[in-house]
Amino acid sequence: MTAHITRTGPGNRPGRQRGVISTVIAVIVLLITLMAAVALMRSVDTGNSIAGRLGFKQQVTQEAELAYQDAVAGAAAYLGQAGEADKADIGYYATPQASDARGIPTALIASTAGKRLQAPDTKDDIRYTVERLCPQTGPALTVAPNACLVPAATINGGSTSGNQGGFGSGAQAAYRLTVRVEGPKHAVSYVQTIMR
Asked: Rounded CA gap, 135 and 101, in Å?
C-alpha cells in the first residue's frame, strides 16, 4: 500500500486566506472612516464660513453708519447749494449715476468712485457716494423742479404733492447715499439710504 501525502503550499492554507480577507475588510473600513472624516471637516469649514459672513454682514451695518455720519458732516458742501455740481473728490454727484439693476452705482461697484474711509477697528475698505435725485445739475428749485424727488412729499387724493406741483419754500431734493464695504477675503456688501 502506498500512502499519498498531499502537501499544501503556503498560499493554500485556510488561515492565510482568512488573513487576506480581514486585511481587505480593514482597508475598506479605513477608507470609509477617512471619507467620513473629510466630509465632517468640510461641514465644519462651511459652517465657519457662513458664521464669518453673517458676522461680516452685521459689522457692515455699523461701518455704513460711519459713512452716513461722514456724509452728514460734509453735507454743507452739497446739500441745498444754489449751483450744485458734481464733486467727485467728496463722493458727491448732482445727478443719479449709471447703476445696476439693484440701484448700486456701477462706478462704486468697480471701486473706482466715491469717498474712501478707513474703519477704525478693522481694515475694511469703506467707500460711499451721495447722489442728488434730480435729472440735471444746478439749483434744485429752478432746474426741472417737477422731476426731482422730494422726500417730504405727501399723498392727497391720489396725487403726490410736493413732487408734481414743484418745490414749495424750503423744499430740498432727496439724496441717495450708497455705501460699499469690502472686508476680509474680498467680501463686499452694500447699504443704501435716502437722505434729506
From this structure: 18
Give tens-digit pLDDT for 70-129. 888 877 766 655 447 788 878 888 888 888 888 888 888 887 778 888 777 777 788 888
Grid coordinates belonging to 9 = 503550499
Q: Does the predicted TM-score (pTM) go above 0.70?
A: no
